[in-house]
Amino acid sequence: MDERAPLTGEPLALDLVNTRPATPDGDRADLIGTPPQLADWLAAQADRLPAEVHERVPTAADVTALHAVRADVDAVLGALLHGTRPPAEALRGLSEAQAAAPRINELAFHDGQLRAIARRIGTPAAALAAVFAEDAVEVLSGPGAAKIKRCEAEDCVLLFLPAHPRRRWCSPTRCGNRTRVARYYQRHKPAAQDGRLSG
Fold first, then answer.
1. What tens digit of pLDDT does each residue of 74-91 get?
2. How far apart are CA 127 and CA 133, in angstroms?
3. Cα–Cα distance between 74 and 94 in angstroms, integer?
4. Checking DSSP bridges between strand 113-120 and strand 103-110, what pairing results, if any?
5. CA distance 115 to 196
6. From CA 78, how far away is CA 126, in angstroms rounded?
7. What is the pTM for the complete model shown?
8. In this structure, how many other beta carbons lie within 10 angstroms of the beta carbon of residue 189?
9. What is the distance between the alpha carbons of residues 97 and 68, in angstroms, rounded to a whole number?
10. Which residues pair with 120 in a beta bridge?
11. Would you say 33 and 90 are in contact if contact means Cβ atoms under 8 Å apart?
């Protein structure tokens, strides 16, 4: 498994925050730092996104708008995980991102019938940001918010919403296996060294 590939499958807001994983030197990477990276990430999320968001080529404005939402979600989640009050500016930022591209039901006459077609108004970048801000509000205000956890692997900063209360890692194949292998090595390392010394 590619350690640099973004994890997907959590709520959209958590997947967005998880596009800033830790690097081996302790910094944070940005997996959606360029329009092509964002395009790849949106393609991986396509089945959960409205077509208007993922079927166009992302621009630098999209990257900037999504980075702002990611920073706000990260600030709110950080506060929740530490049991503190979320920053007012982050809460306001999520509201403003939604307000910049509200979702409306537009009436259209199609095949002899009136139909309501949901669409967002606002710039394409604002529409993209609004989708993720809206998901963040739903996740952060829902019953699952109190269950969100940070991966227990020592060098991982990714978040997840566990389906099972005993889940400890962002991914069993990424951090779970690596942690288990490291523990096994630590337990068996002294015995291996003793064997070499006595031989």
1. 999 999 999 999 999 999
2. 10
3. 11
4. antiparallel
5. 77
6. 24
7. 0.82
8. 10
9. 9
10. 103
11. no
Rounded (to 5) percent helix, strand, coil in the chain: 55, 10, 35
Instruction: Please spell the DSSP secondary structure of 69-113, one letter per residue.
Output: HHHHHHHHHHHHHTTSPPPHHHHHHHHHHHHTS-EEEEEEEETTE
What is the dihedral sign for C-alpha 171, 172, 178, 182?
positive
Fold adopted by 12-198:
Jann2411-like fold (1.10.3300)
For residue 2, the one-letter residue type is: D
pLDDT digits (tens, 9 = 90+) for 177-186: 665 555 655 6
The length of the chain in residues reads: 199
In the block, which residue shows the tokens 């973004």? 6
User: In the prediction, which pLDDT does 1 show?
Assistant: 42
Instruction: Tokens 């002294």: give the residue.
Output: 190
From residue 109, how far is each of 52, 120, 121 by CA, in Å?
Answer: 20, 18, 19
Q: How far apart are CA 142 and CA 2, in angstroms?
A: 32
Q: Say if residue 145 is exposed, middle or buried (CB neighbours under 10 Å; 0-12, 13-18, 19+).
A: middle
